[in-house]
Specification:
Its EC number is 6.1.1.20. The chain is of the alpha+beta class. The chain has helices spanning 2-11, 15-26, 31-38, 44-83, 102-115, 130-133, 169-177, 218-233, 299-304, 321-329, 342-347; strands at 120-121, 127-129, 161-163, 182-191, 203-213, 239-246, 249-258, 288-297, 313-320. Helices cover 38% and strands 18% of the residues. The chain starts with a helix and ends in a 5-residue tail after the last helix. Bound molecules: phenylalanine.
């Protein structure tokens, strides 16, 4: 057993094999271990003799193991050094360069359009006081928009803080911290408990606008929004107001622009890849694309935010940035804007 063991140990060519040899020849079930266990059954004379021989054999095997282990470890180390050498002089591909996200560049473009008109860019937190998100905007405690259906509450058991459901609380913040004239725009992230599908997402982006001054009318609103639309989509695109309702504006409207793909016909043109479908895919046959809500600031909001409603009037709007980007770039699935796929992002480069 001793010679066989030593031979097997010497024959091991790597640490794995040595481990197997150790298990077989020096483990609990090896021939030598078993023989050792049988010594007790021998007569006393033979016991002494056998114990000595087995002890020597085990010593020799352990020595052989230790020696082989050392040799193989050194070999292993040397091999790793060779195999893992990095040739720093080899040419490499450059790391792929990412790109700024279209929502970022799009928000900046929109902000620039307002800055060019002399407006300020305002900001507010996404985790917002319930009072600013709702009450200050004339959305009373019983308003349906305050129910759990639309709103992410920071703590559902303890109302008071919400993930803002729109950028409109920035209106309230701006009125509370500034004195008229106020001209602010605020692009930002908003949250609602919506499904996640091709046209909805629980997180999306709006751009809020607020103008407070003496003599502001609905006409100023229309002119400003027309300028925004023509800056983003090209001159001469028709827009329309549809009557609507928001507690914080009165009167309120929904603003649409003519679908620039079918030019308002609602029919598929063929060059949008839907030649066999009857209706335009961009506006779904409507001929119009909805951009968002707007209106003349409700005097109750002015008063709640400390503005003299006798002297000042204002207009406000809140448009969906993601929607505008989808129309502008022919993005068919809203989710592309939220999944962070660099192939999507880099397709825009840094232009928008
Ligand atoms: N906050 C409204 C919304 O999220 C949009 C809006 C903003 C309407 C400002 C009127 C004035 O739908």
């Amino acid at each position: 057993a001793r010679n066989a063991a030593v031979a097997a140990i010497e024959a091991a060519t790597d640490l794995e094999q040595l481990k197997a040899a150790r298990l077989e020849h020096a483990g609990d079930r090896s021939a030598l271990a078993l023989a050792n266990r049988e010594i007790g059954a021998l007569p006393p004379q033979a016991r002494k003799e056998a114990g000595k021989r087995i002890g020597q054999a085990r010593g020799a095997v352990n020595q052989a193991l230790a020696r082989r282990q050392q040799v193989l470890e050194v070999e292993h180390e040397e091999r790793m050094l060779v195999e893992e050498t990095v040739d720093v002089t080899l040419p490499t591909d450059r790391l792929p360069v990412g790109a700024r996200h279209p929502v970022t560049t799009g928000s900046e473009l929109i902000a620039d359009i307002f800055v060019a008109m002399g407006w300020e860019i305002a900001e507010g937190p996404v985790l917002e006081a319930e009072w600013l998100n709702f009450d200050a905007l004339n959305l009373g405690p019983d308003h349906p928009a305050r129910t759990m259906q639309d709103t992410f509450w920071a703590d559902p058991a303890d109302h008071g803080v919400v993930l803002r459901t729109h950028t409109s609380p920035v209106q309230a913040r701006s009125m509370l911290t500034r004195t008229p004239p106020i001209y602010i725009a605020c692009p930002g992230r908003v949250f609602r408990t919506d499904e996640y599908d091709a046209t909805h997402s629980p997180v999306f982006h709006q751009v809020e606008g607020l103008a407070i001054d003496e003599g502001i009318t609905m006409a100023h609103l229309k002119g400003t929004l027309d300028h925004l639309v023509s800056s983003l989509f090209g001159a001469g695109i028709s827009t329309r107001f549809r009557p609507s309702y928001f507690p914080f504006t009165e009167p309120s409207a929904e603003m649409d622009m003519v679908c620039f793909v079918c030019r308002g016909t609602g029919l598929a043109t063929g060059d949008d890849g839907a030649a066999d479908a009857a209706s335009c895919r961009t506006c779904r046959g409507e001929g119009w694309i909805e951009l968002g809500g707007c209106g003349v600031v409700n005097p109750r909001v002015l008063t709640a935010c400390g503005i003299d409603a006798e002297r000042y009037t204002g207009f406000a709007f809140g448009f969906g940035i993601d929607r505008m980007l989808m129309f502008r770039h022919g993005i068919e699935d809203l989710r592309a804007l939220f999944e962070g796929d660099v192939r999507f992002t880099t397709a825009f480069g840094s232009e928008i």
